[in-house]
Amino acid sequence: MTDSGEGIPSDVLTRVFDPFFTTRQSLERTGLGLGQVRRFATQFGGDIAVESDQGAGTRVILHLPRAAPGRS
Fold this sequence. Notes:
The chain has helices spanning 10-13, 33-43; strands at residues 2-3, 47-53, 57-63. The two termini are 24 Å apart. Strands 1-3-2 form a 3-stranded antiparallel sheet, with helices on one face. It is an alpha+beta fold. The radius of gyration is 14 Å and the shape is globular.
């Protein structure tokens, strides 16, 4: 996925996969999203990466292995 937003600051980018990390002021929601996605991806032999340039947007790349033929 790619967006053209303001991007993620480098000090935040290093923490985006940390469980419970959030930049939100309200503790109403916690930052489980990307940490959970990384765990899911690696559990099935894949990975996830986040690339971001401030002022130029963010790109999230999810790699998952192909299923073996005949498996669903």
